[in-house]
Fold these 2 entries.
Entry 1:
Amino acid sequence: MKHTATQTATKTLTDLYRALDHQHVVTVSFLKEEKDDAGKKTGRLVETVRSLELYEIRTTRDGRIVFEAMDRATGEPRTVRVDHVLSYTVHRMAYVLDRPAPTKYVRPTPAPVNDAQALFFYELARDQDDADYTPRTLIQTDAALAA
């Protein structure tokens, strides 16, 4: 078991990336926000231990590093902030759960260039999609992505 308080964030991320690359299960002790009976967050953090199968490590819009993983106990996806991880253990067990399928990227309609009011409404309509933004998956056969 490795305690994140005694090592750098770079070392923690290196171990998590290695576990992701080799598809090894990680048991993580982390802090999560407690919820009340109605399902609302209370603001208190409680320690939780989960065995996870990582499938993505990314940076959020506010600059925090999170990893997304499948919870082996429930089979549901879970997002954990790296700064909330207290300790972790990388096992050599292989993945057994199927991760959720990535969303398909839909190219937005082109912006109008001649009409200022149409451009204004185009931008307002486009901003609604930012709330559920997920990055598109790169496919090797997509020739438009070659540099």
Entry 2:
Amino acid sequence: MKFVGSGILTRLPLALATVAALGALGCSAVEKGADMVQDAGKSDTARANVGDCINVIEGSMIDSKTEPVDCSSDLAVYKVVQVFDNKTECHEDYTSYEETLNGGTTAFLCLAPNFKQGLCYNESMLTGYKHVACTASEASFKVVLRIDGQADEQLCGEDADKYLTLAEPKTTFCLGSPKS
């Protein structure tokens, strides 16, 4: 037995469901494509995620040279703790990295120091921290002790003449002379 028009009625909901599914996938694909285009203009550093680490090759107030590195590397001076698309305020324990294009912020990262025990760093008010050899004339300090899970300068011993503590993630860096 054949019902006139029943083929169209049963195919119509299926066709509408297919159009809706393709529309949803199409929108998702368009959004992903737009994100990829937006990310294409970003540096590798600007594409970093929370938990990634950054090396400062050359510090500058205007155009720093940086690169993502494995967090176990001696060059992993900073760890990304927050990522934003717009400029914001980072916690006082952190420094920031901002990437702009045509006057607008395309990436804004809040970075926590990720110093390694036994290594030396250069500290500059203008450009932040940079890993350097302890024998380098530009070495500002040596990390004599790193304590993860606690933010307490009282844990630093006699070898430390300065300290740096982070509230999140809780970390204590005991700092001394690079020549020791």
